[in-house]
Amino acid sequence: MADSRLRRTLLFVPGNMPSMLQNVPLFKCDSVIIDLEDAVNHAEKDAARNLVRRFLKSWKERNKEVLVRINPLYTKWGHDDLKAILPEMPDAIRFPMCETPEMALELDAELTQYEAANGLKPGHFGILPSIETVKSVLNAYAIATSTKRIFGLAFGAEDYTASMGIARTNSGEDLVHPRMMVVMAAKAAGLQAIDSIFSDINDMEALRRETELVKRFGYTGKCLVNPRQIDVIHEVFAPKQEEIDYALEVVEAIRQAQEMGTGVISLKGKMVDAPIVKRAIHTLRVAYAQGLTDTPVDEEILNG
Amino acid sequence: MAKNSLGREIPETFNGKSYIPYTDPHSIKPEAFHFQRASRVLKRNYSGASKVVGGLREAIVASGLKDGMTISTHHHLRNGDRLLNDLVREIDALGIRDIRIASSSVHIVHAELIPYIRKGVITALECGVNGPIGEQISRGELACPIIVRSHGGRARSVISGEVPIDVAFLAAPCCDEYGNFNGFYGPSACGSLGYALVDAQYARKVVAVTDNLVPFPALPIGVAQNIVDIVATVDSLGDPKKIVSSTTKLTKDPMGLLIAKYAATVIDASGYLKNGFSFQTGTGGISLAVAGHVRDMMRERRIKGSFGCGGITGFFVDMLDEGLFEGLFDVQCFDLKAVESIGRNRKHQEMSAGLYANPFNMGAVVNRLDCAILSATEIDVNFNVNVNTESSGLLLHNTGGHCDVANGAKVSIIVCPSIRGRLPMVRDEVTTITTPGETVGVVITERGIAVNDHLPELKAELIRRRAPVKDIRALRDEIYAVTGAPKPVEFTDKVVGLIEYLDGTIIDTVRTVRA
Is the ipTM of this complex over 0.95? Predict the structure, then answer.
């Protein structure tokens, strides 16, 4: 499912912390991932599930994308997580430890069944698989193309380094190769590439460097564990003024072409094709979200 | 009982005196009161001899303090102050009773005074209090009429003679035998003596109390020999390390940081953040985070501000040293870095409470403020702010400069979390009105920004910037949706304190809570 939703920041919020959950509507991230997996210890799985269900029920005016990270389906909690959470209509499931296309298809089947039973549009729930082991990195493209529910691949560095038997460093050279593999698989499948969390919440400069690095690789978003990291990541993903200017020119060129009824669009003597338009729209959407432009993007242009 | 313009019932008399109910922020003139200006009896001292009379007890005797008189101290050592406690103990030992305390503030450390209130040594407080004394008074457990005044209001009441101070006992960290003193140096250095400067000018007798007698002359002079009657020496005035009452670190709480970011957006959108900008903020993690944003914007845009004001922190000192402000006006030092700075930097100006915020003169420094960050314990849908009582109804905090600064600043910005301890902080009514909503520009919580009607351009600019501007009633509703509407605290009819507005009118009362 190649969607164009803005996902620069995906904030993990522990599912067992009422004080954090209460503030979810206030965080300025693009998406929130409410966590039932690693943040919640075994003894609290039931309590967290109930809390998250209650929270989602009470949160009427959703102002950001909501994902829930369930436990893997091979654990004793995974299916119960789904049963509890799906009625509260999250936008997507963050699917941990997804190592093979078959695992993604197992979740896909369960979601399909729930949608059919409850009169929901097929494909309503999205899936964001975690590519977080060596095996899943090697299977990344097969996973990415296994079901249309998948809108992106989320690289998970912590478990990846564990599965490699290496230690994660702030410099990140240990992760260059898997990061490239994941972003290539995502791009090849037409999906978004989302980078791993950066766990040192007091080192904003290292966070900035890492985000700049993955932006150059082609990632368009990053997971995070602390709301204080949001601003830094948004700043890095913000387009430069010349990029905004160019995107505005592209949009203007399309508008003029539409008015004149011509199919072929050119700007300064160069053909403007679909990928360029798509990138321009993305640039303007990020710019607007960052407060760099005053007018929202006219999505109709895409259909013109 | 008469109702003031904010609908609060005000008794016609309190502790034997009559008062004028609050009407509005600016129209009350000195002529409304009978007071003109306090004057002191002219004196002649042709002797150049030392004024040191001994310790506190000798000084009390020499001052002529008698039953029924009013004394004052300053609170520059804040929770590290020892003088007021020691003083009252000596007054009691001398058998003197029925004393009014008109200090600039009373802190938690002064809970030691409670037995002396019970005993009748102290029978009235002409000043606001922090901590247990106020708590016990509002529970009806302690009988002692109290009038809470702002810093500017207190200066006004002393200067106008409305509160005649018979003897001011002023902690003097660096003092000579003829009575010259400053607060800059010595083991109890507290920096600015802004509150004490008023008492030194207008009290009938001035006693400089020091733990650091230096050879004549004690320079630079803060309070000069020609207005000091007596010098007393003590072992220690207190512990300056306890001046720091609040955190000195930027908050790391994400919600606090969000509030600070909104506040910075408001300041930016106000249009005042340009060369000549003037700014006041207090202590506390959110205020410092706002100051951090302001500093960054000033650096980035090469803005040279006019002045920073108020209680001064090390953060402002750094901004001055960096050249971001022309100067600092300092009525009290909030940390030891500020104390160190005021002793070395002539651009770090000591400021009396009268110069800071007395409304009855030819213009206080607060009048020149562009933006000020203020806190709150509660805010109501008319932008009225409470900083005195908590939602329990107990009187726990002094006003400080809150209503003074809100009255003077062009944009007064209240920062406050929307919920504390499960209670809503934006509500239908505040327990006590400290600062009238007419003088409040903007209320900021992590759930949004409410702009008062008198700042329509600021509101439009914030909306243009897509800041989360909300009607204050919508903000209240949003918070109530989480917390529910709070059950009102039940009070008796017994008025135990008055909340005075800076102009001397009465803006609210304190009643005992029903047990």
Answer: no
Question: Same domain, yes or no, for A195 and A287?
Answer: no
Let me know whether A202 and A264 are in one domain: no
How far is A56 from chain B, CA to nearest CA, in Å?
14
Nearest residue in chain A measured CA to CA from B421? A19
Chain A contact present for B475, CB below 8 A? no
Contact criterion met (CB below 8 Å) for A234 and A212: no
- Check: CB of residue B447 under 8 Å from CB of residue B418: yes
Residue B495 amino acid letter: V
Quick one: residue B276, left, alpha or beta (phi over 0 = left, psi -120 to 50 = alpha)? Answer: left
Pick from A151, A45, A135, A152: nearest CA to A97: A135
CB atoms under 10 Å from CB of A296, counted, come to: 11
Q: Are A291 and B465 inside 8 Å of each other by CB?
A: yes
Specify whether the CB–CB gap between B81 and B237 falls below 8 A: yes
CA B37 to chain centre: 22
B138: in domain: yes
Question: Distance of alpha carbon A104 from its chain centroid, rounded?
Answer: 16
Question: Where does the pLDDT of residue B112 fall: very low under 50, low under 70, confident under 90, or very high at 90 and above?
Answer: very high
Taking CA atoms, A20 is separated from A9, A52, A56, B480, in Å, by 17, 11, 13, 18
Count of residues for chain B?
A: 515
Same domain, B320 and B226: no
Q: Which domain holds residue B418?
A: 254-491
Q: How many domains does chain A have?
A: 2
One domain for residues B266 and B409: yes
Structure tokens at B501: 């507005």
Residues A41 and A125 in one domain: yes
CATH number for the domain harbouring residue B485: 3.40.1080.10
Per the prediction, chain B carries an average pLDDT of: 95
Domain that holds residue A62: 9-237
Nearest CA in chain B to A25: B447
Asked if B255 lies within 8 A of A26 by C-beta distance, the reply is yes
User: pTM here?
Assistant: 0.90
